[in-house]
């Protein structure tokens, strides 16, 4: 049996379509199921029902006693936002410095920046716990912002250095000859060109601190607890409240949808614009 | 101000922060690993005990050996699995077009999803009474109906690995798609004209060109697999028994459940040493030879 060229192409199209459908189901399915569960009345939570009377009851419950999700949501938003607002400028300055100036042992220094990413958090968390206890930073938002900064800074510097590297130095040199200071140059020349890079790096920073679980688990108790840590509190000895877990999960997911679009674009846009040339 | 001062001034904030939260604690952890320190008895390290914590790990603690085995199985499984599926997804999605770019956006979702949420919800999905994964598998494979997924050592580890693959394969595939799309179309077309089948084109052109990206993704994934904590903590709880208790999880248990700070630090330092080796391979790959970075 031999297929014509047309038939072969059709067959490939169908297989490709089926594969794409499978991929979408596998990766979107679990996420949608969580969101669906969040809107289910208790009687449907433990069924496979796809159609039910949607309710906001689960969301109402998590914001009331004894869970009070409102304060945790505020904590998460404040911690992630300030991590980005402080982290990105620090990272840009460092990235600029690494990109433009000669350093002795530059390679080693840069290696050091990256290497910090590979230190298992479990190794450093105990000393940080003790240090925070001494400084009175345990269970505070400031402490959490600090710890998140140390998580996001190394890779932010790395990402931003790539962006700064791609800016031609000629413009800066002209400005410097005209007597502008380094800080002027960074503010007026580098910063505007870097906006897309700052944006994507900022998004990554936000995700990492928004999703951080390990540090918040160990370093917070009551006042500075963030959303991911609360997930476990719905699964206790007294009972497992999956519908409340799902409602909290849905809130955790919200910023992700906007963000995943940009991540995808960041990766693929860079690649395709290269292949067009 | 002279550039010589400015360059240090610019890296200062980042450098100070990172030193204070990573380098200093790292040194402190190493020093604590040589101490005897039960937090339940004392607020500060009591005695210098030399290598005793390390000796204990290697000669007197089956749980530690177990955690090393578990870690290695998990790392192998999750690295090979994630890279394999990432490659499949990348081959499927490395095309231009709206359908493909929308699918890529969807595929990017798991990476942006909170690992804690993923661990908890997969636990929900695997519940033998009402979990959706369990129900679907029971429908498709009736002989698997009686399996309690998280109650068996083998299946708990399998699901731990699957959970991790679900999170990572999409991200790694985006890294690969960037590599795939940069393969000149002419090269592939020329091979097609010469009559090479797509299978042959994959092995002779695509794979060799993709090899550097594959190597980097493997090592990068390995580094993150060694550090993985959330899924063990929330999906399996290290169980059943200690069947999924990785080194990260074991160090956590020793430190923050058993309050044996000295021993916990020793386990964590051993994990860090393992990671140093893997990281060195990584840096060899991304900074080949002595090229300026």
Write the layout of secondary structure elements.
The complex is a heterodimer of chains A (277) and B (293).
Chain A: H1 5-38, H2 42-45, H3 57-62, H4 69-100, H5 106-115, H6 121-135, H7 141-165, H8 170-177, H9 182-211, H10 214-219, H11 227-230, E1 235-236, E2 239-240, H12 242-276
Chain B: H1 3-32, E1 35-36, E2 47-48, H2 52-59, H3 62-93, H4 98-112, H5 115-125, H6 132-140, H7 153-181, H8 185-193, H9 198-227, H10 230-236, H11 247-256, H12 261-286
Antiparallel strand pairs in B: 1-2
Helix pairs in contact in B: 2-12, 3-7, 3-9, 3-11, 4-7, 5-10, 7-9, 7-10, 8-9, 9-12, 11-12
List keywords for this structure.
heterodimer; A: 277 residues; mainly alpha; MetI-like fold; 2 domains; two-stranded antiparallel sheet; 12 helices; flat; disordered C terminus; B: 293 residues; 74% helix; globular
If you had to describe this structure to a student in words, what would you say it looks like?
Helices cover 75% and strands 1% of the residues of chain A. The two termini of chain A are 42 Å apart. Chain A is flat, with a radius of gyration of 24 Å. Chain A has a two-stranded antiparallel sheet with strand order 1-2. In chain A, a hairpin with a 2-residue loop joins strand 1 (235-236) and strand 2. Chain A contains 12 helices and 2 strands. Chain A has 2 domains: 5-38; 66-276, MetI-like (MetI-like fold). With 277 residues, chain A is mostly helical. Chain B is mainly α. Chain B has a single domain (62-286), classed as MetI-like fold (Orthogonal Bundle). The radius of gyration of chain B is 23 Å and the shape is globular. Chain B starts with a helix and ends in a 7-residue tail after the last helix. Chains A and B meet through helix 1, helix 4, helix 5, helix 6 and helix 7 of A and helix 1, helix 3, helix 4, helix 5 and helix 7 of B.
């Amino acid at each position: 049996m031999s297929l014509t060229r047309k038939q072969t192409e059709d067959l490939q199209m169908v297989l490709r379509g089926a594969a794409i459908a499978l991929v979408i189901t596998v990766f979107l399915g679990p996420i949608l199921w969580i969101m669906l569960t969040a809107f289910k009345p208790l009687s449907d939570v433990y069924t496979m029902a796809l159609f039910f009377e949607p309710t906001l009851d689960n969301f109402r419950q998590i914001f009331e006693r004894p869970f009070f999700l409102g304060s945790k949501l505020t904590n998460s938003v404040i911690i992630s936002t300030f991590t980005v607002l402080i982290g990105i400028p620090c990272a840009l300055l460092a990235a600029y410095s690494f990109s433009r100036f000669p350093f002795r042992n530059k390679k080693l220094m840069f290696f050091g920046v990256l290497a910090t990413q590979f230190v298992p958090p479990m190794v450093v968390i105990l000393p940080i716990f003790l240090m925070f206890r001494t400084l009175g930073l345990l269970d505070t938002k400031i402490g959490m912002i600090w710890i998140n900064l140390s998580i996001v800074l190394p890779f932010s510097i790395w990402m931003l250095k790539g962006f700064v590297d791609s800016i031609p130095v000629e413009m800066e040199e002209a400005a410097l000859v005209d007597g502008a200071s380094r800080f002027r140059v960074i503010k007026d020349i580098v910063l505007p060109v870097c906006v897309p890079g700052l944006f994507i790096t900022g998004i990554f920073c936000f995700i990492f601190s928004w999703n951080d679980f390990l540090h918040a688990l160990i370093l917070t108790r009551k006042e500075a607890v963030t959303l991911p840590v609360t997930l476990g509190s719905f699964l206790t000895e007294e009972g497992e409240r999956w519908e409340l877990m799902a409602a909290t999960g849905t809130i955790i997911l919200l910023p992700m949808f906007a963000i995943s679009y940009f991540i995808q674009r960041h990766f693929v846009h860079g690649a395709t614009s290269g292949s067009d040339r | 101000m002279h550039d010589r001062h400015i360059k240090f001034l610019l890296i200062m904030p980042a450098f100070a922060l990172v030193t204070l939260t990573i380098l200093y604690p790292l040194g402190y952890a190493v020093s604590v690993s040589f101490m005897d320190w039960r937090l339940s008895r004392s607020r500060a390290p009591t005695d210098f005990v030399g290598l005793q914590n390390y000796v204990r790990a290697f000669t007197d603690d089956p749980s530690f050996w177990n955690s090393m085995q578990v870690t290695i199985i998990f790392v192998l499984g999750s690295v090979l699995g994630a890279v394999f599926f990432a490659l499949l997804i990348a081959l499927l999605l490395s095309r231009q077009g709206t359908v493909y770019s929308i699918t890529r956006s969807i595929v990017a979702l798991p990476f942006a999803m909170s690992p804690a949420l993923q661990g908890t919800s997969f636990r929900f999905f695997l519940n033998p009474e009402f979990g959706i994964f369990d129900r679907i598998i029971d429908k498709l494979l009736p002989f698997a109906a009686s399996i309690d997924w998280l109650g068996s050592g083998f299946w708990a580890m399998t699901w731990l690995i699957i959970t991790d693959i679900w999170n990572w394969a999409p991200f790694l595939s985006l890294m690969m798609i960037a590599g795939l799309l940069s393969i000149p179309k002419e090269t592939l077309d020329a091979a097609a004209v010469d009559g090479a089948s797509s299978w042959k084109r994959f092995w002779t052109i695509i794979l060799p060109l993709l090899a550097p990206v594959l190597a980097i993704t493997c090592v990068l994934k390995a580094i993150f697999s060694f550090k993985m904590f959330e899924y063990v903590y929330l999906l399996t709880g290290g169980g059943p028994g200690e069947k999924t208790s990785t080194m990260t999880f074991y160090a956590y248990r020793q430190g923050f459940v058993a309050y044996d700070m000295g021993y916990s630090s020793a386990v964590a330092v051993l994990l860090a040493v393992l990671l140093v080796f893997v990281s060195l391979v990584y840096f060899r790959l991304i900074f080949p030879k002595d090229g300026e970075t």
